[in-house]
Design brief:
single chain; 388 residues; alpha/beta; Rossmann fold; nine-stranded mixed β-sheet; 9 strands; 43% helix
């Protein structure tokens, strides 16, 4: 059990209200003006992706964005998935709620950064055949937007508490399953630690960032090698973390004001953390995710948890998840595949799957592999789920 608990007292909440995305024409017109008037500067294409987003690729993406990408088509596709909002304390949470008629285990899917609820758009149809699927826009992201915090340094734990209240108080579920990656992995672990009575189990695609703080004197040689490889990779590819955790107020206004800057910053992460970037992430899909940040102006709020985690980490290597844990590990994720013994230091691992391909945005990049593993895990651990 964590030594630091943040409780959000019962406060205003509401019944779910149907929600549809509708972006005003003026917002889209302003975007196209900004795209057409981009000041490119003199940047050579010779280094490819070694110094960040490839300038040639970015120019092609922006040209496509300005002249071929059709937001109205993407907006209509997003609105074919049932969406709602509900007031919970200081937040109005946006979420997808996809279910069929029969009672099924509720499954809470949690995205990270710099994606959005759109991370799961390919697996929702697959998973709703087995589960009642709930996919929120996390606090600070997308159509949930900024959330006033009673304790800013404990943002992740407060977000986890809001999500627990969404599932239990708004949607009425005593027990539910959770799956997530990146920031969603941390939130899933917090939910399991703070509310084991509610969480049937958690399915993760990574261990979470807190494992980097492991005591090197207490790990095996294999574990130490894994940690050292992670440090080396961080020094080569972790500039985004350092900026967002130390100087977010310098970065956020630039990304919020320039669609090209926003695209360059986000696309760099998708390229760095995937197996087959242009195959896995077609321009229409990349731009739809970027558009969610652009039209909601949430790139700044989405980065707030980085600073909060530096000031006061919400998880430590002393925390342990006791509910069943399934891990689906994709080879080109940020940290690679860890030793199982290392994962078992903090997690009650019941399923361990090393995938043949794929990266950080697993549900998006490899939807069949991801959905299949999530389904198999929760079918295995849930012989009797009790009241849901």
């Amino acid at each position: 059990m964590s030594s630091t608990n943040v409780t959000i007292a019962a406060g205003p909440r509401s019944q779910p209200e149907p929600f549809e995305i509708h972006v005003e024409a003026a917002v889209l017109s302003d975007l196209h003006v900004r795209l057409r008037e981009t000041r490119w500067g003199d940047v050579a294409d010779d280094d490819g992706w070694k110094l960040g987003t490839n300038p040639g690729y970015l120019r092609d993406l922006v040209t496509y964005w300005a002249h071929q990408y059709d937001w109205s088509v993407q907006e209509a596709a997003l609105n074919r998935v049932p969406q709602f909002t509900a007031a919970v304390d200081r937040a109005r949470l946006h979420f997808v709620h996809a279910k069929d008629g029969a009672p099924r285990l509720p499954l809470l899917l949690l995205h990270g950064w710099p994606d959005s609820f759109y991370r799961f758009h390919k697996v929702i149809p697959r998973l709703r055949e087995t589960f009642e699927v709930v996919v929120p826009s996390l606090p600070g992201f997308g159509f949930t937007g900024p959330v006033r915090r009673s304790s800013p340094e404990q943002q992740n734990r407060q977000s986890a508490q809001l999500l627990w209240r969404l599932m239990t108080e708004v949607l009425g579920h005593r027990r539910f399953a959770v799956a997530g990656g990146d920031g969603g992995s941390a939130l899933a672990q917090l939910l399991a630690i703070d509310h084991p009575e509610s969480v049937v189990g958690i399915h993760l695609t990574d261990l979470g960032w807190h494992v980097a703080n492991a005591d090197r004197s207490k790990v095996s040689k294999v574990e130490r090698k894994y940690l050292e490889a992670g440090e080396k990779r961080f020094m080569a590819d972790g500039a985004y973390v350092m900026v967002q955790s130390t100087r977010p107020q310098s970065l956020a206004p630039a990304l919020n004001d320039s669609p090209v800057a926003l695209a360059a910053w986000i696309v760099d992460r998708f390229h760095s953390w995937s197996d087959a970037f242009e195959v896995a992430f077609p321009k229409d899909e990349l731009l739809t995710n970027i558009m969610i940040y652009w039209v909601t102006q949430t790139i700044g709020p989405s980065m707030e948890s980085y600073r909060a985690e530096v000031v006061s980490p919400s998880l430590s290597v002393a925390d342990h998840v006791d509910v069943p844990v399934g891990l689906a590990l994709f080879p080109n994720d940020i940290g690679g595949i860890p030793p199982r013994a290392f994962a078992e230091r903090t997690l009650n691992v019941q399923r361990w799957t090393e995938m043949p391909r794929g990266g950080h945005f697993a549900a998006w990049e490899e939807p069949e592999l991801y959905a299949g593993d999530v389904t198999s895990f929760f079918q295995a651990v849930g012989g009797s789920w009790g009241a849901i």
